[in-house]
Task: inverse folding
């Protein structure tokens, strides 16, 4: 006979199955917490509960709490959320505590979010003002990307030995073309598949004038995570760093990306394990309302 605890667990699991099967790829819908950063600053635990009440079950950090990671992990757990991954600058890995803290928090992925310019590799890029970074990234070269690939392979090996997976999240700037070579393609093809995976930002790929569906078809085994971001029709394509600041984002399903085809391509590739809704810039609705609209669209 089942104990009361076993019965409750089994019943909850049975109830969760239809909800998951309604989601794309049968996976829990995740949220990149940058979307609700202001709400979290005002009421961290209350905002987590609201996220979970909408239906989200996984979250991704935009910065790592270096103090009390076990407490933060409990905050997520108490809200019914799992913190799967986090975003990092390459320079942050110079901190000897960063990997241990990520492990204590329960992260599975550590995702690098920008390419590092070799001329800035010894500076803390994360502390530079955004408007200072934009003109610098206009000068990025293909050699910079090849250098980054070398760093990712080395760092990926280190994380692998610590039970973590390194990933890279693209921005529109990573879709720049150098002759007949696209930077994002060079990163994918120059990194070890065992040590480095990719989190494709569908919105940034589209903003750069490329097709995220084609990338899922071209590299079916290299893209393990997705950022779900939709763009209002009629946006101007660009590979500058500041594409997310131009007010082109809209809730999932309200823009120009064909999500049915995108998830069909992801299903065919069979390697996407997590995806996260992310809203950037000015949206048509307040953040908590916007993420509910996106969740409801995906869940339907």
Result:
């Amino acid at each position: 006979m089942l104990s009361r605890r076993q019965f409750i667990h089994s019943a909850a699991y049975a109830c969760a199955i239809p909800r998951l099967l309604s989601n794309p790829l049968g996976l829990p819908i995740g949220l990149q917490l940058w979307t609700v950063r202001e709400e979290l600053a005002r009421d961290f635990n209350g905002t987590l509960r609201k996220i979970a009440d909408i239906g989200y079950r996984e979250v991704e950090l935009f910065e790592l709490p270096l103090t009390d990671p076990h407490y933060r992990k409990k905050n997520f757990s108490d809200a019914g959320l799992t913190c799967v991954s986090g975003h990092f600058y390459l320079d942050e890995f110079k901190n000897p505590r960063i990997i241990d803290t990520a492990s204590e928090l329960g992260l599975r992925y550590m995702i690098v979010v920008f390419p590092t310019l070799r001329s800035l590799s010894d500076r803390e890029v994360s502390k530079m003002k955004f408007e200072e970074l934009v003109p610098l990234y206009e000068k990025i070269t293909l050699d910079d990307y090849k250098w980054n690939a070398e760093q990712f392979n080395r760092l990926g090996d280190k994380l692998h030995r610590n039970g973590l997976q390194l990933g890279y999240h693209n921005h529109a700037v990573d879709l720049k073309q150098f002759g007949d070579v696209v930077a994002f393609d060079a990163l994918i093809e120059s990194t070890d598949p065992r040590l480095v995976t990719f989190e494709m930002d569908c919105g940034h790929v589209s903003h750069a004038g490329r097709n995220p569906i084609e990338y899922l078809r071209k590299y079916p085994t290299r893209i393990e995570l997705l950022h779900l971001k939709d763009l209002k029709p009629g946006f101007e394509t660009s590979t500058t760093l500041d594409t997310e600041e131009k007010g082109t984002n809209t809730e999932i399903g309200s823009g120009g990306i064909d999500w049915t085809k995108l998830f069909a391509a992801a299903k065919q590739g069979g390697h996407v394990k997590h995806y996260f809704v992310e809203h950037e810039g000015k949206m048509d609705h307040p953040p908590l309302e916007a993420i509910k609209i996106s969740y409801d669209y995906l869940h339907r």
About this structure: The domain at 27-299 is CATH 3.20.20.150 (TIM Barrel).
